[in-house]
From TrEMBL:
Enzyme Commission number: 1.6.5.3
PANTHER family according to UniProt: NADH-UBIQUINONE OXIDOREDUCTASE CHAIN 6
InterPro entries: NADH_UbQ/plastoQ_OxRdtase_su6 (IPR001457), Nuo/plastoQ_OxRdtase_6_NuoJ (IPR042106)
Pfam families documented for this protein: Oxidored_q3
Keyword list, A-Z: Membrane, Oxidoreductase, Transmembrane, Transmembrane helix
Protein name (database record): NADH dehydrogenase subunit J
């Protein structure tokens, strides 16, 4: 009976890990192949969130929280603001 419980728990953990891995890899591929730079930045933030969820599911909550604060909070917002501030200038120079 106890072995069956451990097998079910292992299968659930394996399913969560596989789902998060596919999500992270899919968002990373979309980040690289997206033509719109804003969409690419949003896919990158989604990939960072997936990595944070992976850390939390692997019983490393400090790394998960650090991932959210440092990468999503700081780097992601920095990329989005840089894109939003420079995009209009590039568009005006190319059309003007």
């Amino acid at each position: 009976m106890l072995d069956r419980i451990y097998d079910i728990r292992f299968l659930i953990e394996l399913g969560v890990f596989a789902t998060l891995s596919v999500l992270i890899l899919g968002l990373a591929v979309l980040t690289v192949y997206s033509r719109n730079i804003v969409h690419s930045a949003l896919y990158l933030i989604g990939s960072f969130a997936g990595v944070a969820a992976l850390y939390i599911s692997l019983n490393a909550p400090f790394l998960g929280v650090a991932q959210v604060l440092v990468y999503i909070g700081a780097v992601g917002v920095l990329i989005l603001f840089a894109v939003m501030l420079t995009r209009r200038t590039i568009m005006e120079e190319s059309h003007g």
